[in-house]
Write a structure and sequence with these properties.
The complex is a heterodimer of chains A (about 180) and B (about 230).
Chain A lengths: L12 E5 L6 H7 L2 H9 L4 E5 L18 E5 L5 H7 L2 E4 L3 H9 L4 E4 L9 H10 L4 E3 L4 H7 L14 H10 L6
Parallel strand pairs in A: 1-2, 1-4, 2-3, 4-5, 5-6
Helix pairs in contact in A: 2-6
Chain B lengths: L2 H37 L13 E5 L2 H13 L8 E6 L3 H18 L3 H4 E6 L9 H22 L3 E4 L5 H14 L5 E5 L10 H8 L5 E4 L2 H6 L4 E2 L5
Parallel strand pairs in B: 1-2, 1-4, 2-3, 4-5, 5-6, 6-7
Classes of the chains: A alpha/beta (about 180), B alpha/beta (about 230).
């Protein structure tokens, strides 16, 4: 998946996205020394954080000599561009972010926000993790997930298909099949 | 005492009213069962005309899934199309407009001939207090009623969240009252793997959706009247 393992690019970005929410626990976790060290060991050179409405501000860093370059922003109209140029995506559990990343074929770690009241979001992430389309973590276990992950073992996601629904709707309304 | 004379008339009058009420309620219940029974059965007429279609756009991921479904539906059958999104959601209608404009360009027609875009008040915004939401729910219901009287769709496509509930309830009421027969299709979001969303559950339990689609097999096992259709995303 992605350009994992290939040394074609000097720049290997781990992109973190929290969507429109605030998810300080995730931003704090990726900004921790242990996670940054694990990411660096795995060969990532840059850490870019989309922090949304969060209050916790990560520490910016220029990188070089044995450490990650760290940068952050709150919102961007073109998350898609950041996803496209990333080598690894660490995302909140929103279905929009998940499918956008999977359809770009990028390795993905989904971190579930345990502070959310209605936490149905973890259902989707767990299900997709079970079929090995992504890794699933909690903020406290992210460093372990990064350390243990083997991106080659991830199964590429094949996009879904709406034609079965369309067919049933057509039949129901007694439109002839094409 | 004249109590003995007055009482039979009074009790007769009240029992007549009572019987009438029972009769009316029975009729309504029979009609509701009729609507539920025939609503969930495929149409039998051949070669139907194009159907006016209401598409309720949820927001974010919901809208993305709905537009995926629309991209494979035959536009000459599902026409004209009416799009409704929450008044606080600016992105969804914009995305629908983009889709409709590219369709119109292909066929050399104006978008305004084939599609209309509307916004609806939400009954409750995130974080709104429950006391004020009684009032806003009333306004939202009236607004939904007004929109539905204008559109009177034959087909309703929705996939949550709550925006679609007042519209579906009114569509169901129209069916019971014989104002307009419509088919309500609900596609549960791909994010729901183990349990239906509140909107999905309401439409399922109250049997307001004529067809309820789910995208995961384990959901279909839990809710047997739902139809498993595989992933849309």
């Amino acid at each position: 998946m992605g350009d994992n393992g290939a040394n074609t690019k000097f720049r290997r970005v781990a992109f973190v996205t929290v969507g429109t929410t605030c998810f300080d626990a995730l931003v704090r976790a990726v900004d921790s020394q242990t996670v940054k060290q694990e990411l660096f060991t795995k060969g990532y050179t840059h850490l870019l954080i989309q922090m949304g409405r969060g209050l916790y501000i990560p520490t910016k860093s220029e990188g070089g000599d044995g450490s990650l370059a760290v940068d952050y922003f709150t919102f961007s109209s073109s998350i898609a561009d950041h996803l496209r140029s990333a080598s690894l995506v660490i995302s909140h559990a929103g279905s929009g972010s998940i499918f956008e990343t999977l359809q770009l074929g990028k390795p993905l770690i989904v971190v579930v926000n345990e502070d959310l009241m209605d936490n149905h979001q973890s259902e989707l992430a767990e299900e997709l993790a079970e079929s090995k389309h992504l890794y699933y973590a909690r903020p406290q276990t992210l460093n372990q997930t990064v350390a243990d992950m083997d991106l080659k073992s991830l199964v590429p996601y094949s996009p879904g298909d709406a034609t079965p629904v369309a067919k049933i709707i057509n039949r129901f309304l007694s439109f002839p099949d094409d | 005492m004249d109590k003995g004379n007055a009482c039979p008339y009074a009790s007769m009058a009240s029992s007549v009213t009572f019987c009438c009420a029972i009769f009316a309620i029975t009729l309504v219940i029979i009609r509701i069962f009729y609507v539920i029974y025939w609503g969930s059965r495929p149409h039998r007429t051949r070669a139907p005309q194009p159907v006016s279609t209401l598409i309720v756009l949820g927001s974010g991921g919901h809208t993305a899934e709905m537009l995926n479904l629309l991209s494979v539906l035959q536009k000459d059958r599902f026409t004209p199309r009416f799009y409704i999104a929450a008044a606080t959601d600016n992105m969804s209608l914009q995305k629908a407009r983009l889709l409709e404009n590219s369709l119109a360009d292909e066929n050399g027609v104006q978008t305004s001939e084939t599609a209309q875009f509307m916004q609806i008040y939400r009954s409750r915004e995130v974080g709104q207090s429950y006391i004020t939401s009684v009032w806003t729910t009333l306004i939202a219901m009236m607004h939904a009623l007004w929109l539905m009287m204008k559109i009177r769709p034959q087909v309703i496509l929705c996939n949550g969240p709550g925006t679609c509930i007042p519209l579906c309830a009114i569509a169901f009421l129209f069916k019971v009252l014989g104002i307009r027969w419509s088919s309500i299709f609900y596609v549960e979001s791909i994010a729901r793997v183990r349990r239906l969303s509140l909107s999905g559950l309401l439409l399922y339990k109250l049997r307001m959706a004529d067809q309820l689609f789910v995208q995961w097999p384990q959901l279909q096992r839990k809710y047997p009247r739902a139809t498993y259709v595989g992933r849309l995303m």
